[in-house]
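User: Sequence in, structure out. Go.
Assistant: Echoing your sequence, followed by the structure tokens.
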Amino acid sequence: MRRGFTRPMTVAFVCDGCDRAVHLPADAPRGESACPGCGRGHRLLLVPSVLESRRVEGCLLCGLDRLYVQKDFNRKIGLAVFAVAALLSVPTWGLSLLAATLIDLALYHVLGDVTVCYGCGAQHRGFVRSPAHAAYDLHVAESIARRPKTA
């Protein structure tokens, strides 16, 4: 992330009521908002220390402390770039694949990270990366998926 530039702290998730995307600013008053689709209220579990440090240690939506970090990039766009490059690889003698690789490398270094909850899938943007959160781990995801659901 560029120095001097701080992204707004937001939490994005899918509404349980209507499956629409909801984006809540983490610094909103009382940390609550209504779903734009069904009007269902959602509340973030905000702790003042999170807002001060800009570091998230647990999910602000469900409270789970199992989070992972990934690059904040739309996978469908990335796949489309390489699909176009593959289609153009014959007429460009493979240079389009090299160009797509260089674009991917540049984006990897420019784009920030997003912290994602294993349990509910909420995406926390604009927060400082915590050293406790590593890349996605399939074993952790499976153990979270097997745990008993509480309503």
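User: And one key feature?
Assistant: Helices lie at 48-53, 75-87, 95-110, 138-146.
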